[in-house]
Every structure is written in structure tokens, then in C-alpha cells.
Amino acid sequence: MVTIEDVARRAGVSRQTVSNVINAPAKVREPTREKVDAAITALGYAPNAVARRLRTQRTSTIGVRLDAYSGGVSGVVLDRFVHALTEHAATRGLRVLLYAARTVDEELRHINELADGGEVDAIILTGTSRDDRRAERLRERDMPFAAFGRPWGTEDPAEASHPWVDIDGAAGTRAATAYLLGDAGPRVAFLGWPPDSETGDDRERGWREAMAAGSGDRAAPRISSEDGVAQAQGAIRTLLKDDAVDGIVCASDALAIGAHLAAVEAGRPGLRIVGFDNTAAAEALGISSVEQLPERVAAGLLDMLMGPEERRISHPPAPVGLLVEPQLIVR
């Protein structure tokens, strides 16, 4: 088995220099790093992860909750995020540990267990909410963490108390609304979730801002529905009996698919509809949608957690927030 001493002899450097290249490359000058990397490649050296964890007291592991399977259209974005996080983490010598939790209390128990057992170096939260108890618990346990989702109530990135990355939902619906105003007509409705959903309210805000800034009919309706195809279909079926809207911006693809089915049923298959999430189902039906870019979220969170050294979790990571602007996909 090739050892770190073999790599050091091949590169003509000390054992410590090889260790720094593997664990803290920012400490080593680029020409030296290149020599060591060439020796590692030539010899086929693979660092012993178990020995490194024992030596450094680091697990090189990040924990993230895996949501319960919900079926239907929902959940696709988080699945893509977890997949992207796993891929990006692997390129930095990290692993991802998934844990399931159906309630906040259950997740708090998992956080305690992971901290007590020293099983992870950091945790990434998903599904954030106002006054998030999980964030408070992680601070109490002195566990580095970042969040996919803003800390609602203090969404200004300059006021971040911990690292977070989120999708700018309002920017996505603004772009969708502006597109429909130019392509379909002034009466663009919004189909969203019931009020007091913070993510839903953010997406509704983008629609309202675009309607006010453009040539939109400010009397265009705002319709509520639970996030299901059948529920959305029923809500839009009722709307189209009395209102000849020009287009509909939706808070999710599930809502957009239901709206599309109601439009076909009403004899308006060409009604312009834009969803949110850009799922395979929306693509198959030819429905325009807002792409969330979860891969960019995953990369951004790792950048925040790992700091300048790129191969070690910062403790604590710098508190900073980042909004990722989504992309409108027109079909």
C-alpha cells in the first residue's frame, strides 16, 4: 500500500507538506501543491479516511435531513438538492449523512444524537421557518451549520446570524409575470397557497410587484389552493367559469398542472400558465416554469461552510446570506 511517506519522497517534500496539501491546501504554495498532486496521481495514493478522522478529530461528514416521501410532484427540488450536495461534497473530500425526521421535535433529537456521538462536522438545515428551533439548538450545541432557506423575519443577507442560501422566489414570479404580461395580456392571475406560507407569500410578492410595475390589470384575481393537482384544478375550474384571464402564474408546478388541466377542460388549452420548480412533469406537459437551480444552492452552502481552506469545515462558519436568482424556462 502506498503511504504518505512514499508520496513525500516522490515529490521531494516533507511528510507534513503532503499532509497540508491533502487537508489544508491553502497553506501550500501552488508549485509545491502541483508537485505533490503529481506524485499522488503517479503513485495512486489514497488517503486513509479512517486514520485521518482519528488524527484530526474530524469526521469529514455533513448531516442533512431527508424529508419523508410525499409522492406526487412535490419534493423534487429537495431531492435534486441532496443529490447535488452529495456530488459537490465528494469533490471536497466530504461525505453526506442523511437522517429522516417527520417533525421538528424528532429532528431536534437527531441533532442531539449526532452532536453527542461526534458523527458529523456540520449540519445543513432545510425547510426553514420563522424562529427556527433547530437553529437555536445547533448554536447551543456549538455545531457548525448552514441552511437551505432564509431565516424568515431577518431575510436581509447583511443581517445573517448564520450562513444561508435561498432561492429568490419573488424574482422568479416577477420574471414569470412580466413574461405573461408581454406575451398573453394584462389580466394575469396568481394561483398560490393559502396565506401565511412564507415561501408562498414571497412568490406572491413577485407577482404583485410585476403587476404594479408593468401593464398588468391590478384587479386580476389571486386564487388560493392547497398544493395538489386536483385542488388546483378545482380552483381554476371555478375561476374560468366567470373570468377570462389572460394567463396564470403559479406558486408550484403541482398548481400549474392542475390549472392546465382545468384550462383544457374549459376549452382553453392555449391559456398561458407558468409554474415554479421546473419538474419533469411540467416539462412533459409543455408548461413553462421557474427553475430553482438547487445545484447552485448546494455549491454555495459548501463554500460558506468550508471557508478559504476548501477542505475543512470552518468553526464557526461566517454568517452570510445569499439569494440565488432562479431562471424562467419558457415552453
Automatic annotation (TrEMBL):
<dbReference type="GO" id="GO:0000976">
    <property type="term" value="F:transcription cis-regulatory region binding"/>
</dbReference>
<keyword id="KW-0804">Transcription</keyword>
<dbReference type="Pfam" id="PF13377">
    <property type="entry name" value="Peripla_BP_3"/>
</dbReference>
<dbReference type="InterPro" id="IPR046335">
    <property type="entry name" value="LacI/GalR-like_sensor"/>
</dbReference>
<keyword id="KW-0805">Transcription regulation</keyword>
<dbReference type="InterPro" id="IPR010982">
    <property type="entry name" value="Lambda_DNA-bd_dom_sf"/>
</dbReference>
<dbReference type="GO" id="GO:0003700">
    <property type="term" value="F:DNA-binding transcription factor activity"/>
</dbReference>
<dbReference type="Pfam" id="PF00356">
    <property type="entry name" value="LacI"/>
</dbReference>
<dbReference type="InterPro" id="IPR000843">
    <property type="entry name" value="HTH_LacI"/>
</dbReference>
<dbReference type="InterPro" id="IPR028082">
    <property type="entry name" value="Peripla_BP_I"/>
</dbReference>
<protein>
    <submittedName>
        <fullName>DNA-binding transcriptional regulator, LacI/PurR family</fullName>
    </submittedName>
</protein>
<feature type="domain" description="HTH lacI-type">
    <location>
        <begin position="2"/>
        <end position="56"/>
    </location>
</feature>
<keyword id="KW-0238">DNA-binding</keyword>
